[in-house]
Amino acid sequence: MIDVRLTSSRRRQFSARLRATDDASYIRRLMAILALDEGESVSEVAEKLGVVRQTIYNWARAFESGGDATALEDRYAGGRPSVWTEQLRTLLLAALRQRPNELGFPGPNWTVPLLQAHLERCSGRRLSDDTIRRQLERLDYVWKRSRYVLPPDPEREKKTRHPSAIEEPAPAERAPG
Fold it and tell me: What are the pLDDT tens digits along the chain (177 aa)?
């Protein structure tokens, strides 16, 4: 059994936070504590908010341990910690100032796989191509895919008619009138 009792100042604090935030998860947690304070059961609150009862117990326990509305804020930053470091950013910027063939790579222009190989060679860390693309986008670099172009045909002249060899069409004859 959870017994949540809020003072009038705490209720005002919760109400102010409800109006000030646009984080839906935080709003649900605040509403759960307010509903428990109003005497609703854990089952009723869970059903109203569309969560399981255990979630309500977890939120109430977090509130009791923290003592105020900030205890219900998200602490989770989302996702795995980034492997991207300032050193990698510096290496990427330095590479982009040079051509890949100057650093021993084939090709005159950087591609994501070439950047990936260069950063791995310099830092010892293999980065995904998505990570490199995200960083390029953050640095406002844009690129387009190169198109493979065939070399010109050396025998093209032999295959086409010379302009002087093209016959002029005969002038139209007038019909006797």
Answer: 677 888 888 888 888 888 888 888 888 888 998 999 888 999 999 999 999 999 999 888 888 877 777 777 776 656 788 888 999 999 999 999 999 999 999 888 899 999 999 999 999 999 999 999 999 999 988 776 667 788 888 888 777 766 665 555 556 665 665
Find the length of the chain: 177
The residues spanned by each domain of the chain are: 8-72, 86-138
CB atoms near residue 170 (< 10 Å): 6
Instruction: Decide: 135 and 92 in contact? Cβ < 8 Å.
Output: yes
Indicate the pTM of the whole model: 0.44
**In contact, 35 and 41? CB cutoff 8 Å:** no
Report the alpha-carbon distance of residue 150 to residue 23 in Å, rounded.
54
DSSP labels for 126-175? PPPHHHHHHHHHHTT---------PPPPTTHHHHS--GGGSPPPPPPPPP
List the CATH code of the domain at 8-72. 1.10.10
Describe the crossing of helices 24-37 and 53-66 by its angle, rounded to 10 degrees. 80
- Are the C-beta atoms of residues 57 and 84 closer than 8 Å to each other? no
